[in-house]
Design goal:
Helices cover 72% and strands 2% of the residues. By secondary structure, the protein is an all-alpha fold.
């Protein structure tokens, strides 16, 4: 029983990061109609910059803020330099552009950070936490806390602020939003910037558990896409649910079978959902539409 609980808590801890990244994918898709396969690279950039700054001797909070700032700038530049010039292209071409951007970002990260993994120490010291016979590294609590805070702040932004309301209006009807004086281009820029921030937060809190290297962006992007599709691309709540589910599947596969099969089971689940319920498991249960 303690073994099952350990796998469950570990899966939920890792799944919170997938939830953040999946939420970014869902947000960009709803506002722009584009599936951003470069979303995982925001996790990679956030984690690598945080580990590099922290390794250079900067205090962890300062390193985290710098990593967050740099990653959001990269997200904004991705929109301004890649998506906006091709705004009249069809969605298939835009998706291919995000794949190309992801490969380019990986190459740039190799030049800047090298091919080695970058390590960072846990945010708080002390041994694992014992709960019901299970032992869990304390860093997983930071992952969960960061996800809860980020999701709540995102919900407040979307429902309580004027820019958030404009983003929701654009997601509902772009032409009507334009007639009301809302710029879809600005909303697209805002969506990419916020999605990059979510990815950076995920990368920062996950770095002490899974030291990143320049090649982790594409795998994270695929996991984020899986999380968003499983929950429903039009449902932010569904994206969070999908992320947690992907984390659990990986943890159970690693614990009970082998880590070699975790991707097989995860993407097998994606295939099953696409065949049985292509709109996502929680599509009708969405509470907030952005």
């Amino acid at each position: 029983m303690s073994e099952f609980l350990t796998f469950t808590l570990t899966g939920l801890g890792t799944g919170t990061t997938y939830a953040l990244v999946g939420l970014g994918v869902a947000m960009v898709f709803q506002v722009t109609g584009v599936i951003n396969f470069a979303q995982g690279d925001f996790v990679m950039i956030g984690g690598l910059t945080f580990a590099s700054f922290a390794g250079a001797g900067l205090p962890e909070p300062v390193a985290a803020l710098l990593a967050l700032l740099i990653t959001t700038v990269v997200g904004a530049l991705l929109n301004l330099l890649v998506i906006r010039p091709a705004r009249r292209a069809n969605r298939e071409r835009l998706v291919i552009l995000t794949i190309g951007a992801s490969i380019t970002l990986e190459g740039l990260a190799l030049l800047v950070f090298g091919a080695d993994s970058h390590f960072a120490k846990a945010f708080t010291g002390g041994g694992p936490i014992s709960f019901g016979g299970a032992r869990l590294p304390r860093q997983y609590l930071w992952c969960a806390l960061a996800t809860v805070v980020a999701v709540v702040l995102m919900w407040l932004f979307l429902t309580r602020t004027l820019p958030g309301t404009a983003m929701r209006a654009t997601a509902m009807d772009t032409d009507a939003a334009r007639l009301m004086g809302i710029s879809p281009a600005r909303m697209s820029l805002l969506a990419f910037t916020l999605a990059a921030a979510l990815g950076a937060i995920g990368g920062i809190v996950l770095t002490p558990l899974q030291p990143p290297d320049a090649s982790v962006g594409i795998p994270f992007g695929l996991k984020a896409f899986t999380a968003a599709v499983i929950g429903g691309l039009s449902s932010p709540v569904g994206a969070v649910f999908g992320g947690l589910l992907v984390g659990l599947v990986e943890a159970y596969a690693t614990g009970y079978i082998s880590s070699d099969y975790k991707n097989t089971l995860t993407f097998g689940l994606l295939l099953l959902v696409l065949l049985i319920r292509p709109t996502g498991l929680l599509h009708r249960a969405s509470v907030v539409r952005v």
